[in-house]
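Ticket #4471: structure export looks truncated?
Reporter: QA, pipeline team
Priority: medium

Steps to reproduce: submit the single chain below to the structure queue and open the exported record.
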Amino acid sequence: MIDLFRSYQPVFDFFLFSLGLAYSQQAALRAGVFSVATAGFSALGAYACAILVKTYGAPPFLAILIGALVGGAAGWILSAPLARLRGVYQAIATLAFGEVIISLALYAEPVTGGAVGINSIPKSISTWHLLIVIAAVMYVMHAIGRSGVGRSFDALRQDETVAACLGVSITRYHALAFVISGVIGGLFGAMQSLYAYNIEPGQFGFSLMVSVLTAIVLGGRSSLIGPVFGAAILTILPELARPLAEYRPLVNGVILIGVIVFLPQGVGDAMIAYFRRRRDAARRGVSVEKRSVVASA
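Actual output as written to the record:
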């Protein structure tokens, strides 16, 4: 069993990284912010952490913390100019943000290493570090979901006008969603830089944006379990579809279209909705049965 786990440990670690970035994406989408800036936040956290550790010899824990704070600060700054944008315009603006970060990483060669990136970064992150951080992030997301902040996010996602009439500050909660998304994205970007020995701009490009967004579309954007399903599908699918490696983008696209058409809520959210309907139906059945017994008595 241990040998089996060791043979698949890199795949499991990739799943944990994908899950962390999926929660960053979910934090924005849950508040109704159509942001694809997670890849940019991740790049900022990764480069900040790698430069601190490699150039200045900072302790890994401090460098990861600063990487997360850099991502959160970028989210807060980004929320100001995007406060007046909605929908596809927000998506385009955050897509441009990611491309600007990639361009800075390419052209600031004395600091970032340019196209080659930063190499020989001391590895300080292992699987159990990732598990602890994922557990902490899931707890925080669960706590947010059950708090007034989570209810405000849900209200904004469903109808901004109604939420504003109920006293929810659109600007404040959208900024908070950007900050949470930035902190989580920067956190996992920083951890990735201390896991993979090297980072380069291509890791944080358009393909990462699409992958993170796809994980949420597949899994669901409102439940805690949704990103788990999305990240698991995207991790396991390439392993199962190795014979179809040449057609892998086509297979991924067909599955994504199928989920959008038949399960628009995502696999995780759809499963939760199904079990809730069954529970409610069972309760109604018990209630009707009790009323029948009382009436017959």
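Status: closed, not a bug. The export was complete when the record was re-opened. Leaving a note from the reviewer for reference: The longest helix spans residues 267-296.
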